[in-house]
Amino acid sequence: MSINNLNIKKGDLSGNIFLFYRILRKNRIEVTPKNLIDALRSLLYVEIKKKGDFKHALRTNFTSTKKDMELFDILFEEFFTGFEKINSENILPPEDESEDMSSHAEEEKDKREIIIENWCNKDSKNECMEKEELPGYSSLEVLSTKDFSNLSPSEMERINEIIVKIAPKITRKRLRRKKAHPKGEEFDLRRSIRKNLSAYGGEIIELKRRKRKIVDTAIVLLCDVSGSMDCYTRFFIQFIYGFQNNIKGMETFVFSTRLSRVTHILKKGNFKDALNEISRRIKHWSGGTNIGYCLQHLNNNYGWMVGRKTVVIVVSDGWDRGDTELLEKEIRRLKRNSHKLIWLNPLLGSPDYKPICKGIKTALPYTSYFLPLHNLNSLIMLSKTLKSVI
After folding, report:
1. Pairing state of beta strands 340-345 and 369-372?
2. Contact 252/315 with Cβ under 8 angstroms?
3. Is 28 helix (H, G, I), strand (E, B) or coil?
């Protein structure tokens, strides 16, 4: 596709970005319809009259490797020739001068937002559009930094939709080894030859296919339901409910002064019923905390669940009234038996937080990752971390 042969449309921002997107694809930069939609929406948050901002917004969404970035820069300069005179060339929508520049800018932004959102919504229904695997930042921007303890029921439901999309994907690992599959992504030359020699005398009649093996990594999740975690407990139960019902073979426990397995409860009915049953059956709900004793109970009675391919996730603020020597002994044991041990702390999201409580100080040397879990951004960070270790 030659750039010179394309028709740059006067005043049509979204149309011109779409043309540029087609050029990138033609030049083998791996961009998807999702990248296109994200790029268009990102323009709502930058000053598009500034070449650097405009270019950076597109490059961020359209490239992922150094090689792609270098090719992008060349194509961008060729496509948007004379960007400094962009208004006179009508590549972007023309602007009207006004004495009230601030109100004019707001009106232009609103108009641009409506145009871009309508274009994205229209084209997202097209048959060639791919399904989004994870929600884009733009659709949930307001929730991205809102603390989970302050979520409304409707906001919590939207967060849960993200969990449902994330959960099945982060625990699946594609192996180098391959297996026979009739709808595999590549041909199995050796099996095809062997089959056709034995069945058809060497005539190539039947082709065999294969694909990479996919295995599910085991997860054991331990959630603190002690009194110090009350403001987060409802979200975390919904968090583990979403994971439990979308990850094969996951095991879930809640703890405070004692440890209770709740895997079977979370697999029944809807979330509200599961929450009511857990709170009714777990007598130590909103009590004190004895993390060492609970980990000892896990190691002694459920140690068979934890193996070298198991990721153990502990969700707790670390406030502990138990024996620190017991805690150190048991968490060292748990770390040694597992693949990775991840500790999620909702207080870690605060800029003033310091890991000074005895539970956290004792556990930190044995954790593979110590991460916050207090808003949408931290949830996305968790998903990326899990993807990297599984």
Report:
1. parallel
2. no
3. coil
Residue 228 and residue 320: Cα distance in Å, rounded?
Answer: 10
Amino acid at 7: N
Q: How far apart are CA 362 and CA 295, in angstroms?
A: 13
The Cα–Cα gap between 41 and 191 comes to 48
Q: Which two tokens stand for residue 385?
A: 């971390």
Residue 7 three-state SS: coil
The DSSP H or E segment spanning 174 is strand 172-180
Place of tokens 């520049």: 101
Instruction: Provide the residue type at 218 as one letter.
Output: A
Q: Which one, of 143, 141, 158, 123, lies nearest residue 37 by Cα?
A: 123
Burial code of 188-212, b = ≥16 C-beta within 10 A, e = fewer? beeebeebbeeeeeeeeeeebbbbe
pLDDT per position as a tens digit, 180-222: 767 776 767 677 777 777 777 666 667 777 776 665 678 899 9
Instruction: Tell which residue, 282, 290, 288, has the closest CA to residue 254.
Output: 282
Give pLDDT tens digits for 259-280: 999 998 887 767 778 878 887 8
Q: Phi/psi of residue 70, each to 5°?
A: -65, -45
Q: Which two tokens stand for residue 231?
A: 């403001």
Which residues contact residue 115 at a Cβ distance below 8 angstroms, ignoring those fewer than 6 apart? 13, 14
Q: How far is Cα 306 from Cα 337, in angstroms, rounded to an integer? A: 6
Q: Return the DSSP state at 49.
A: T
Sign of CA dihedral 181, 187, 193, 198: positive
Distance CA 157, CA 163 (A): 10
Q: What is the DSSP string of 87-142?
A: HHHTSS------S-HHHHHHHHHHHHHHHHHHHHHHHHTSTTPPPPSS--GGGGGG
pTM of the model: 0.56
| Burial class of residue 273 in the structure, from the number of CB atoms within 10 Å of its CB (0-12 exposed, 13-18 middle, 19+ buried) | exposed
Which DSSP category does 217 fall into? Answer: P
Residue carrying the six token digits 């139960």: 237
The letter for the amino acid at 241 is Y
Judge whether 341 and 334 are in contact, CB under 8 Å.
yes
- For 369, phi then psi, to 5°, come to -140, 135
**Does residue 228 surpass a pLDDT of 70?**
yes
